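TL;DR need structure tokens for one chain.
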Amino acid sequence: MNLNELTIEQINTFSVQQGATALSKLREESYNAMEENEALLMRILKDNKDTEIGKKYDFASIESIEEYQKRLPVTTYDDYAEYVLRMINNNQSNLMTAYDVDLYCETNGTLGNPKIMPMSSNAIAVQNTYNSGVFNGIKGEELDPSWMKGRAMTLMECKMVEIKDGKKYGALSSIMMSEMKPVLEKISSTPFEALFPVGDTDARYLQARFALAASDITQINATFLSFVAEIMRYIETHWQMLVDDIEKGTINQEIRMPDDVRNNLLAKISPMPERAAELRKIFEEEMHTKIAVKIWKNLKLISGVGTGAFEIYDNKLKERYVDDSVKFFYAGISSTEAMFSVPLGMDIKDSALVPNSIFYEFLPVDANDDFSKIVTLDKVEVGKDYEIIMTNLSGLYRYRMRDCIKVMGMYNNLPLIRFQYRIDQVVDLIDDHTSEIALTKTATDTAKKLGFELVDFSVFADREAMPPKYIYLIEAVNIPDGIELGAIQKCINENLDKYNPELAAQIAKEMCAPADVHLLQEETYMLYRDLMVMKGRNSAQLKPVRIIINELQRRFFFGLVEKEWEA
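>> reply
TL;DR here they are.
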């Protein structure tokens, strides 16, 4: 089928039909989840018995989960780094996996350092089937069919480079978007020049400008909901420039992009005075009244990761930009290493494990690394927190993910989970074990109580101070008159006491000091993201800087403290 010859409605209908098959398949697998997962492990061992790792641990003789767990240790990235380098630099194969590997992806390390992971063609196929497939199937079941007639605002920046012998390095999303190139500009408002930016092209401007010009947007799709909140904030701040450009059919000369990119874009656009007048009226008269559904009257859906550290952006979008007519699809837990879970409906934050994606093991978070307490998916307990240990289709075996998930319930025999926090993102001043969740709830509750809008925040553990203390760096807007820095600091400390009584006890003993607060300049977090992209980081991998963990982050954020708000 030549999708390029189809209308946008026909393309979306075709995607929904394929998605319905994937969704039905997952629902069927939910009845025999453990059997499906065990069969996957046995298939992985059989297929990889002649690899270097397979021979080392004699995969050929393993006939049970118990034997697999006895034979193979729990692993970390360091156990695979040498194999990955040999695969890339020497073009060696059959080391970690027997499956074809042509793609290498970036993943965030414990200390924020990117690591390179191989991704096999088998793993990519699973992602296509269950990730985008289930998403499309659910859209077909739960959305008004009119969404199929409209385009999407696609908030992604896809970068892919060839590293050696035809092998590519980039994000999985880049592969998926590249495969859709023939129809992308038919189904999305975002131009190629923003989806596949070159040089220092300002992709954010292009995403916003072309989406505002499109009155037929029915969905906004992003990797993380933070990107959606950021683009809405950008539109609010720069709407006059964006609307002027739409009216005149121009691109502001101050916007960064190579000349050839600018010329290609100018050839695609023309003056739109009527759309500009409509937008100008909305911004001048209805700026703070759920503006997204005024700009795009047929908006039906926003999708992206919206749990864990991203929940504050979910709340912000609902409070400020959209009403109940817009549904949310909260992407499940997925990473460079593997796809773990997908939601089974709209507006649901729990997601179902995918038994044919990886082999799952679960280490109770309170087990203190006692691996004898690891359980399989049929033995997990609802309400309990676990670290995922997984065996994937790309050559990782019993690999520690360092992600804490909570088992929220069951769908037939398939556990429903929700991401909690990165286990490595627990910070200590003096053995207080303050979690990312506690830090986030402290900030969001403070903003709610004092009536300001929390754009974003980071926390620095200042262990050099006497006594040591946490420092909150907060980007906030619309701070009510009369609210001073001292009031924000007082509220932060009250909430920290509530969410981590252990820290409060240490403060009472004067072992550490109450937290300090600094307010950041407007658009600090936009600037940080731009800086990381300019330094070569893939935007799809950029997550919120909740805990400042390196010197670059420390210097950047403290360098953008708003001086007039300093104590």
